[in-house]
Amino acid sequence: MGFVLHDYQTTLKSRATLTGTGVHSGKPVTVNFLPADADTGIVFQLSNGGESREFRALVSEVGATDLCTMLGDPAGEHIGTVEHLMAAVFGLGVDNLVIEIDGREVPILDGSAVPFVEAFDQAGIEMLPVKRRYIRVVKPVRIENGASWAEFRPYDGTRFEIEIDFESPAIGRQLFASDINPDIFRRDIARARTFGFMKDVERLWAAGYALGSSLENSLVIGDDNRVINIGGLRYANEFARHKTLDAMGDLALAGARFIGCFRSYRGGHRMNAAALRRLLSDRSAFEIVETTRRERGRSAEMIAVSAPLYAPWMI
């Protein structure tokens, strides 16, 4: 294969902490990121009223996909808006992590993945002496809903091709397509912020959403179809890049990193989760692989292995 694969699992070297506000709840929340042993996967621990509840970061735990990706029961214990954090986990290649959180929503911070990247960088990322397993897509899997669609296709690498199409001329039709590695994620994706429309604000507030949203953490398109943030856009196609960031966070709930290409048109959290479920429900569409011993001057080869215990199809 002509792309770089990391042979071994990773975790953080030390603890990191972030404090912020939930974009939908408007409530303050603190998140602690703790190193974890190999084969732990990504585990959230919610402390609420003296009690602790554990959520694995798996698509099988997704309880809602309205405006964000939520783990758990929307009417009970849950953790919302996990996608930006999980995009950083995916983008930087963190396999094992315990995430302590004291509220039901991951803080929005600046609306991008940058604060999580900086926290992980400060803590450091270390390799563990256990092989990393990958989900390798071996045949196309596609879902459609009206004009929208999403699909996984075999590919020698990890690639996203995300196209969006909005009526607003401030966004219009945009495409972001790229192979993914930590350097590309930091440079081209991590800084892209979540976005919304001023015309939707009152409706969202009335429904109990976006109570913590502001120009400090969201790109806002005004009634005149212009971005009203004083600093403007961070990328010319920041909207498509943020949708790519969201897709990375949603697909990080696979239980293992994937080798393949994910493509979507007019997608979102619901379609991302549905496509991932469709892939994992078809055992003929993927295989679990890890690298074999490398020989000097040659790329690693892959061999089929057993699935990780924390993978959603094992639960």
From TrEMBL:
<feature type="active site" description="Proton donor">
    <location>
        <position position="269"/>
    </location>
</feature>
<feature type="binding site">
    <location>
        <position position="84"/>
    </location>
    <ligand>
        <name>Zn(2+)</name>
    </ligand>
</feature>
<keyword id="KW-0862">Zinc</keyword>
<dbReference type="InterPro" id="IPR004463">
    <property type="entry name" value="UDP-acyl_GlcNac_deAcase"/>
</dbReference>
<dbReference type="Pfam" id="PF03331">
    <property type="entry name" value="LpxC"/>
</dbReference>
<dbReference type="InterPro" id="IPR020568">
    <property type="entry name" value="Ribosomal_Su5_D2-typ_SF"/>
</dbReference>
<comment type="pathway">
    <text>Glycolipid biosynthesis; lipid IV(A) biosynthesis; lipid IV(A) from (3R)-3-hydroxytetradecanoyl-[acyl-carrier-protein] and UDP-N-acetyl-alpha-D-glucosamine: step 2/6.</text>
</comment>
<keyword id="KW-0479">Metal-binding</keyword>
<feature type="binding site">
    <location>
        <position position="246"/>
    </location>
    <ligand>
        <name>Zn(2+)</name>
    </ligand>
</feature>
<keyword id="KW-0378">Hydrolase</keyword>
<comment type="similarity">
    <text>Belongs to the LpxC family.</text>
</comment>
<dbReference type="GO" id="GO:0103117">
    <property type="term" value="F:UDP-3-O-acyl-N-acetylglucosamine deacetylase activity"/>
</dbReference>
<dbReference type="InterPro" id="IPR011334">
    <property type="entry name" value="UDP-acyl_GlcNac_deAcase_C"/>
</dbReference>
<feature type="binding site">
    <location>
        <position position="242"/>
    </location>
    <ligand>
        <name>Zn(2+)</name>
    </ligand>
</feature>
<protein>
    <recommendedName>
        <fullName>UDP-3-O-acyl-N-acetylglucosamine deacetylase</fullName>
        <ecNumber>3.5.1.108</ecNumber>
    </recommendedName>
</protein>
<keyword id="KW-0441">Lipid A biosynthesis</keyword>
<comment type="function">
    <text>Catalyzes the hydrolysis of UDP-3-O-myristoyl-N-acetylglucosamine to form UDP-3-O-myristoylglucosamine and acetate, the committed step in lipid A biosynthesis.</text>
</comment>
<keyword id="KW-0443">Lipid metabolism</keyword>
<keyword id="KW-0444">Lipid biosynthesis</keyword>
<dbReference type="InterPro" id="IPR015870">
    <property type="entry name" value="UDP-acyl_N-AcGlcN_deAcase_N"/>
</dbReference>
